[in-house]
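Hi again,

Forgot to attach this to my earlier email, sorry! This is the prediction with thymidine-5'-phosphate bound. I've pasted everything inline since the attachment limit keeps bouncing my files.
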Amino acid sequence: MKNKYSGKFIALDGPDGCGKSTQAKLLAEWLKGQDAAVESFRDPGDTAIGEKIREVLLNPEHIAMSTATEVLLYMAARAQLWGEKIAPALMQKKCVILDRWLSSTCAYQGYAGGFGINQVIKLAADSLKMPWPDLTIILDVDLETSANRLSGRPDRMEAKPRQYHQKVREGFLELVHQQKNFLIVDATGEIETVHKKVIEVVEKMF
Ligand code: TMP
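Structure tokens for the complex follow:
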């Protein structure tokens, strides 16, 4: 059944511990309740190749990895996910929800890692058919809230210093400022409160 969410590409992104995976699930359920056909993916991952790249990227033993290597590996996993899963789903007019996307490479590697946001975008333009989603929702949280939400052994990215994560947050805020089709949601509240705000921005956009 075709509706206003058919063929739309929506990404949820933000610092570690912002709650985007929970919010992506809730958004997908809400969209299904609106009679939309929905497919959800996580980036990096959700293809056989992408999951292997994810393991390499997040392995805490890989402390020698440079920012440029990170950029290329995240982009490689994304290019694979686009070709194998996202493009076919959009062709079938499904609504596609992404847990992270290019905005993460811009904020983490581009801004916090010093590779440059514009350099990341340039590389994405040459590697991806559709670099930017129809809507990117940035879930913004302060460092204390996000740190309290993380549990278990930190992966290689989570284990980076506090100053790095502070810059990641600044990078996301910079993107909201400079990119089209980006909306910000305050993600410090309860799950249900944040979910309502996410729905509001989705309804506002479409
Ligand atoms: P996740 O656990 O939220 O799925 O993300 C994995 C980690 O990878 C998380 O710490 C954020 C980081 N990351 C980047 O540094 N650059 C990227 O482009 C993406 C997609 C994730």
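Residues 75 and 124 are 7 Å apart (CA to CA). The longest helix spans residues 67-91.

That should be everything now.

G.
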